[in-house]
Amino acid sequence: MDGISNQATINEQPLEEAKNEVLRKIGRNMLIFQQMEQYLKVLVSTSNISGYGSELKAKQASQIESVQTQTMGQLVGQYIENNNPEKNNKSDEPDDLKDVYVSISFSIETNEEAHNQQKKFMASLVEERNNLVHHFLPTFNPTSINSCVDVQKRLDTQADKVRRTITRLKATLAAFNKARKTFADFSQSQECTDYFEMIFAQQSSLANILTDLAETHAGNNGWVVLHKAVSIINQKSPTEIKNLKQNHNCKKLKDMMIKTKLFELSDEKTPKGGSRVLYRLKRD
Fold this sequence. Notes:
The protein is mainly α. It has eleven helices and five strands; from the N terminus they run H-E-H-H-E-H-H-H-H-E-H-H-H-H-E-E. It folds into two domains: 2-188, no CATH class; 196-281, Nucleotidyltransferase, domain 5, CATH 3.30.420. The strands form two sheets. Strands 3-5-4 form a three-stranded antiparallel β-sheet. A two-stranded antiparallel sheet has the order 1-2. Mean pLDDT is 87; it is low at 3-10.
């Protein structure tokens, strides 16, 4: 009897080892699917964000929290849509800005054919993941060593596909993080400060008035006498010059005009030996 029992154990050992290997590979694939899911969560929650500077941190936290309960299918759907070549990337910037407004969008530029192929491939991975989690047992016969070997091969093929996808997602995230760091470094630089001050100055009502005067009150040579422009501005909009320091951090109108980079300024000698400042719109 002992000999028969030992022989049965020996005969069952390859099947038991094959079943254990199947279980090991199931666990491995579940873990790498979770890795893929984590990369998708980071990309989906951070690659598109917009809002006033004062609210960006809270908005980012809200987006990160919102993806935590989303399914793999929902994450893949958002990721694919973010990279849709037909997507309209128009900013949702409000018409009436009350503060610095920032919009950050990161996507992979591709054509429609490649996008559709990627969409089908990612959808197939979602289906494989769901089948592994919810519908695996009907495809596996644990009493058959042939079934164990076949399932192992399928799990290995699946693992290779998911790993390649993770590598692409990881590279995409690395590129995005690099771009975000570049933007963060720029946003803290004097160059960025100067740039935004220029934009605000260009879009100000005072710049609009000066532009209108340059088009309607220019002499034959195209120049406008600045002190005449100031007189007109003080008549029509008396607070503009008065609030120059408050609105543009400039003591003189000339400084504000230089900041806009919209105007050329020139000093001209007067017949009486004095001088006056002229300005005109910059020519392309």
